[in-house]
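Database export, one record per block. Field names are fixed; values are copied verbatim from the stored entry.
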Amino acid sequence: MNVIETPLPGVLVIEPRVFSDQRGFFLETYHRQRYTASGIDEIFVQDNHSRSAHGTLRGLHFQLKSPQGKLVRVSAGEVFDVAVDIRRGSPYFGQWFGEYLSGENNKQMYVPPGFAHGFCVLSETADFMYKCSDFYDPTDEQGVAWDDPALAIDWPIDQPILSKKDAALPKMSELMDCLPRFAMSQV
């Protein structure tokens, strides 16, 4: 597998080895030893799978008391996947990175704890799968508005389909008092 560092330290793009022939293909979507050797030392405790229609935008989500690291991938369709550094005091605070993930390119993205995460669907539908390093806690879920001008995320869609909850998410400036503090050991 090929691991690509992004402009946000800790956020990684993974290109797994794909073995193809006339019958189809095979790839490993996770191998603890290889991922640990590549800097992803999370113990994942929950796997999730969502299917979303074209134009759907989910996010930008995070948890405060139980921050989740996420290893994300798309098995069918295509999404634009985004990670945003939300750690107060981080030299990368408020910066984002996006990557196109699809069932064709088989890329994965690792989003560490301390980052908000979201994606938008570019294909007719997309099956989005992700491993989480902590359990989902609906009482702890927070989020940042997808269109916060302070973040200036260059989403490839203009009028996304949002849940009521995601449409009401606050801007980053409204969350400053509750965001996690950055520690130098996190770079």
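Remark 1: The radius of gyration is 16 Å.
Remark 2: The chain has one domain: 2-174.
End of record.
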